[in-house]
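lol ok so funny story. i was supposed to be doing the assay writeup but got distracted and ended up predicting the structure for this chain instead. priorities right. anyway since i did it might as well share w the group, maybe its usefull for someone
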Amino acid sequence: MEVQIVTPDKTIFSGKADLVVVPGSDGQIGILDNHAPLVSSMQKGQVKVRQGNDDQFFDIEGGVVEVLKNQVIVLAS
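and the output, tada:
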């Protein structure tokens, strides 16, 4: 799936991923290929992006995540 993590200043990640985990307002949300459409607010925490065996972590202060048609957009603050 395609993933973009965007802050007001810049894009901090753009590329393909096998798994994305975001800090949803009510707990962690794991997103895999063909996930159902979703829009959720996020709390302060880390966004995890897995590409194969490599995990990357991005600290965020909050924001919104949208999942639609194998595309994940994280609008982070």
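The CA atoms of residues 20 and 49 lie 5 Å apart. The chain has a mean pLDDT of 96.
back to the writeup now i swear
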